[in-house]
Amino acid sequence: MNEESTIRVMIVDDHAIVREGLKQVLADTDDILVTGEAANGLEAIRLARARQGDIMLLDITMPDRNGIEVLKQIHKEIPELSIIMLSMHREDQYAIRSLKAGAVGYLNKQSAPNELVQAIRQVSEGNKYISPALAQELARHVAEDSGKAPHESLSDREFQTLLMIAAGKSVSDIAAELSLSVKTVSEYRSRLLSKMVLKNNAELMHYAIRHGLVIE
After folding, report:
1. In angstroms, what CA-CA distances link 82 with 22, 157, 214?
2. Would you give the distance in Å from CA 185 to the centre of its chain?
3. Which of 24, 78, 91, 152 reaches 20 to 30 Å from 58, CA-CA?
4. How far is CA 124 from CA 37, 53, 121, 140, 182, in A?
């Protein structure tokens, strides 16, 4: 392998089985080498600061910090590092937020094995990677002239809280999963209900289903 042409990749995901799966996909290539891995947001930031790779595959959902928050911090400190976000969420839920925050690509984990190598190579050439599904969603957003939907005005944490409540999780469940206090999550819930002019969780869930944020 020619070191000058080798693309060095770092993988950040809190599930070891996911990291191993991604490494197996990349092991079949001649020009991509995994040079570091991390299991949470703090480790991801340390990995980025150590300059252990050219591209980072960063999971959006991690136990200690929201992936978009980690993305923003790394992008601010090390803007030359290319970050491709990985997520189990549908493309239209987090992709646009990720790209606005500085990501150069977005991959749904279910499609990652098929698109991963192409995305990494494309990004290594200085381009962004946008899947066909995401391209359609971006086109829809550009074409819309009716203004933003209420959920698009939410902060990243408020939006994450919305999705988790819509998925049936309680405030205490969300607090435990995000390593936050119940009071903090309750504040996010209150703010998002206020911004979206909704009264309770039932209305929030109906809204989420109506806008395709969760599967009915």
Report:
1. 17, 23, 29
2. 20
3. 152
4. 18, 11, 5, 27, 41
Provide the CATH topology of domain 150-210: Arc Repressor Mutant, subunit A (1.10.10)
DSSP state of 10: E
Tens digits of residue pLDDT in 16-47: 999 999 999 999 899 999 999 999 999 999 99
Locate CATH 1.10.10.10 in the chain.
150-210
Q: How buried is residue 72: exposed, middle or buried, by Cβ count under 10 Å (0-12/13-18/19+)?
A: middle
The residues of the chain that CATH labels 3.40.50.2300 are: 3-141
Q: What is the pTM of this model?
A: 0.69
DSSP tag of 158: H
- How many CA atoms does the CB half-sphere of 65 hold within 13 Å? 18
Q: What is the pLDDT of residues 123-167, one digit of tens each?
A: 999 999 987 777 776 666 655 545 677 888 888 889 989 999 998
Domain 3-141 has what CATH class? alpha beta
Amino acid at position 56, single letter: M
